[in-house]
Specification:
By secondary structure, this protein is α/β, with parallel strands linked by helices. Helix content is 40%, strand content 12%.
Length: 231
């Protein structure tokens, strides 16, 4: 798990930047030969610096995204989490609040919770109604945390400003999905850990754990370590 933290947070912030500044949309205009000499209001993006970043699920990855926002872009960080994070609050000036308040105040809502029975479709129609019409949703967690049909409806109706998605309810996402036709949606093929360095680190960790197991030792990041210790 630790080897994935920073690179997944990089992916999350790449989605924040590319969605807010309309990077993919405007880059495509240039590649198609449609250079716009004077950028007018219809093509304006949104600032990222000094905005409010809401993190739903302040685990390792959520904290890494929060650091990028607070320390790199001067963003005010709100977070909702099952338990408080006093060290992170002190480090970043982050404020813990309930999810409804976070949704209402945030300019960027970044989802980093695990998928469980409780988090399945936790971001749905009610959540989108609470968000600002300019807010951007970022999902680097699991696709089924978001009700995709509700997201499509919210985007179509202008309830939120856009979405940056590395995950989808069904993967690969259907080529017929309305999300892929929306200029204010940046869609990635679940690339959170897809860098040379991180994939090498993942392979190295797997080999090290195999060696530890063969030596009769407890591997790192064991999910059920108590079972091993009981033997």
């Amino acid at each position: 798990p630790d080897v994935l933290t920073e690179t997944t947070a990089d992916t999350g912030f790449a989605l924040i930047m590319s969605t807010a500044r309309r990077v993919v949309e405007l880059a495509e205009l240039v590649k198609l030969g449609n250079w716009v000499e004077h950028i007018d209001k219809p093509l304006y993006g949104l600032d990222v610096h000094s905005k409010v970043l809401g993190i739903i699920g302040m685990g390792r990855i959520g904290a890494a995204v929060a650091r990028r926002g607070a320390l790199g872009f001067g963003m005010r960080v709100l977070y909702s989490n099952s338990s408080p994070k006093p060290a992170l609050e002190k480090e970043l000036g982050a404020l813990r609040c309930d999810t409804d308040e976070l949704l209402a105040q945030s300019d960027f809502v970044c989802i980093t919770v695990p998928l469980t029975a409780e988090t399945h479709h936790m971001i749905g129609a009610d959540a989108f109604l609470r968000m600002k019409s300019s807010s951007i949703l970022i999902n680097i967690a699991r696709g089924k945390v978001v009700d995709e049909a509700a997201l499509i409806a919210a985007l179509n109706e202008g309830q939120i400003g856009g979405a940056g998605l590395d995950v989808f309810e069904e993967e690969p996402v259907s080529a017929e999905s309305p999300l892929l036709q929306m200029p204010n949606v940046v869609a990635l093929p679940h690339i959170g850990s897809a860098t040379h360095e991180t994939r090498a680190a993942m392979a190295k960790l797997a080999v090290e754990n195999l060696i530890l197991a063969l030596q009769g030792k407890s591997p790192r990041n064991a999910v059920n370590e108590q079972v091993l210790l009981a033997k």
